[in-house]
Each structure stands twice: as C-alpha cells, then as structure tokens.
Write a structure and sequence with these properties.
Blueprint (H helix, E strand, L loop, with lengths): L6 H14 L12 H8 L3 H13 L3 E4 L3 E4 L3
Antiparallel strand pairs: 1-2
Helix pairs in contact: 1-3, 2-3
C-alpha cells in the first residue's frame, strides 16, 4: 500500500504534472479555487494550500482579482 499523501500534495503534484507534460502552458489560467475544490471533492482551503506552495516555488503566478496562471519559466 502506498504511503498516505495529503490531498493538497496530490493536487500540487497533479498540477505540476500537467505543466510538465505541456497540458498547461505558460500563461494558461488555472480553474478557480471553487472549480478545483469540486473536482477534487475537497475544500477551498486545501486547494489554496496546493496553489500557494506552487506560487512560492515560482511555478504559478497569482494575479489579485484575476486568477492564477502558469508562470513563464
């Protein structure tokens, strides 16, 4: 059995994988927190945690009142 992985880490990993494989490209807008929360059947807090970690890593870029985008690398 695989070790337990917190949901926010899975969300982070899956977003990162979509960027790595080119499914999400620099400048692409991510779905809203609410849409991602619905997709993963979780709370907005969990989604925001994953997104915050990716923003801190420079993978994503948050634009106040506009959304979250894949950063230009």
């Amino acid at each position: 059995m695989a070790p337990y992985e917190p949901l926010w880490r899975r969300i982070r990993r899956e977003i990162q994988a979509k960027i790595t494989t080119g499914l999400l490209k620099p400048g692409d807008k991510l779905p809203t927190t609410r849409e991602l929360a619905d997709e993963y059947d979780t709370s907005g807090v969990t989604v925001r945690k994953a997104i915050e970690v990716l923003i801190e890593a420079g993978v994503l870029e948050g634009r106040q009142g506009v959304g979250v985008f894949v950063a230009d690398r």
